[in-house]
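Step 1: inspect the first sequence and its tokens.
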Amino acid sequence: MLLDFVEMLKVIFLGIVEGITEWLPISSTGHMLLVDEFIRLDMTDSFKEMFFVVIQLGAILAVVLLFWKKMFPFQFKDKTQPVIRKDIFSLWFKVVAACIPGAVVTLLFDDYVDAHFHTPLVIAAALIFYGFAFILIENWNKKRKVRVESLNDITYQTAFFIGLFQVLAIIPGTSRSGATIIGALLIGVSRVAAAEFTFFLAVPVMFGWSLIKLIKFGFAFSAQELCVLGLGCVVAFAVSVVVIRFLMGYIKKHDFKVFGWYRIILGAIVLGYFAL
């Protein structure tokens, strides 16, 4: 048997955690590292480091499935008439602009961050700090008028600014989606547009990050390792479909403060646990 029952349950649980936390602004990497403190996969440290990133590919496919019509620039009115959506091409160029800061910082500092910042204390501090940030920004936004209502209203300058905030996500516990949403809210982007742009931004970022981790690990997988990766991605994909639909419905009527309070409570629990 390639995976025993207990290890299979661990992988399924990690896939569920990834699918939930990747799209909610509560830090998927932070949660995965915390879960690993208590539910340890019977794998090498180098494989687990790669697995916690590559499992996100399943979550990406959920975004592609749900937002295909908004993401794919070549569409067809019928079987013979292709239509090129210039607005979608333009949006992808803005996504590329937003990716530049994060790509540079990741290539320069990823190994250093992996070695020094993947600790419960750092994760807890980031959870709490950005939890307060969400609450303060949402309270401040009550007095402000939204400047960017939809994806098409996002300019290159706005996209690059959001990309600068994404750099913060290199610290575990920050949350890639959380960092970009905070940046978008600060410059007057609506919650729905901020979330959708975060989904777009996730596709090249997570593909690129996964490729880096795969190259560092190497492509010589055992049968058991392939089973772990495959099962984790499938579970993350299925859960992500449900979570993305929930989030898009939720933020049309509510703000992000509940996620801020969740981060603060979880961070306090983590600090208390490891202090004792």
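Step 2: inspect the second sequence and its tokens, then contrast the two.
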Amino acid sequence: MHIFISVDIEGVAGVCEGTQGRRGNAEYELARRLMTEEANAAIRGAFNGGATAVTVADSHGSMRNMLVDQLDPRARIVSGSLRPYSMVEGVAEDHAGLILIGYHAAAGNYGALAHSYSGQAFHKILVNGTLMGEPTVFAGYAASLGVPLLAVSGDQFLAEEIAAQFPNAKSILVKQSINSAATNSLSPAESCNLIEADVQTAVQSASGAKVETPITAPFETSVEFHRQSFADAATYLPGVERKDSETVVFTVDSYRDLIGTIAALSLMVSGLMA
């Protein structure tokens, strides 16, 4: 039984503000260690639950964050970017389940460090009228392959999204968000204990897990940017049309094109901000 684990950083216990997710400072070095420890807790839980193989995807920013020399040696690691399927690059039909660790609420929702794909680019993304967080599209893609979402860790606002979009997946609450840059968190040690126990339980039930997805193709997508200039640039992409000063719309027929178009819009904004 092969389990796929995707690990972000903003939803990790003890992480509450943007500096902790950016390279070049002591806070980031601490956060990446905490990220690695939560990944290891999930790996232990997966093997304890009956997994015979585990693949872990480093899924924050540059996707080169975890301390690979400290990662559980039983796991394989997917790292680096740009990846066609981004946060779930490598997930495949033969995986028994998907685990998301250190995730966060969507852009347009409450929650510490809430965003969708790019905090500097997007104010809100809707796909087929559904608020798109990162689990929406990445666990949705896994579901399209027949791989169920088993468990997700993060804050209470993420848990609300998961309950609405993937009602049979387990939410592992490692912190409560107070506002956009403040949390009331479990200690890192207790967070890891909880993740290990809940992932074990989720993996033990993987064979009977329901495959769920909140969105299906065609994907009618509305992207609201933080700035009008970002929407100006977005209209240069084929198939992207202007809706209002900050919003563009497009429709695609595959998860690859949905993920790729959002990634291209994010990269475009990065260039404008340089």
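Step 3: confirm your contrast with the notes below.
The radius of gyration is 17 Å. The domain at 2-105+134-208 is CATH 3.40.50.10780 (Rossmann fold).
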